[in-house]
Amino acid sequence: DIQMTQSPSSLSASVGDSVTITCRASQSISDYLNWYQKKPGKAPNLLIHDASSLQSGVPSRFSGSGSGTDFTLTISSLQPEDFATYYCQQSYSIPYTFGQGTKLEIK
Amino acid sequence: QEQLVESGGGVVQPGRSLRLSCAASGFTFSSYGMHWVRQAPGKGLEWLAVIWSDGSNIYYGDSVKGRFSISRDNSGNTLYLQMDRLRVEDTAFYYCARSVDFGAGTCDYWGQGALVTVSS
What pLDDT is attached to residue B102? Predict the structure, then answer.
């Protein structure tokens, strides 16, 4: 199975800041990498698919990059609604494993 | 618009069975693969299973293989998860999700989740 490792596990930031979350795969997954946002009591929300493609309806302050084993999610100009937990997921091979999550908190 | 609604959650004793349903609407259900994903209290997301759009292929994660069974009724626009030999560690919110393709791993629409509590 492919292991997905996110860093950091948590971070604090202020409204207006820019933050970057990284995700590393245990083997090359090309660009088969997704990012989801998860808020308590809500369903996960697909933000980025195929490493860098913005899902329809997602604000442009979210962006993704990377290929192979190393990937990043960047959120520019943080908004209050962006404070949540973020998960990467590889869609290269079954089982479609998730990272452990990165909790983004308000400073 | 696309909608997924889970049902069937509840409290069940260890070793017993439970079946979750996921009713789909707003899209052509038979054209999309479907997934089950769960989140245990205080834990991250865990992928559980996928079924191809036509039901021709089914795959499971290691933690539920042999105990859980995914199935679908394309005529009734419903996805199922049969959970047998439940364990305390299966306590979680269970989400159904639509694949962007016949069986791809990317999930673009999700239900709100059904809570399953396994406790004696």
Answer: 75
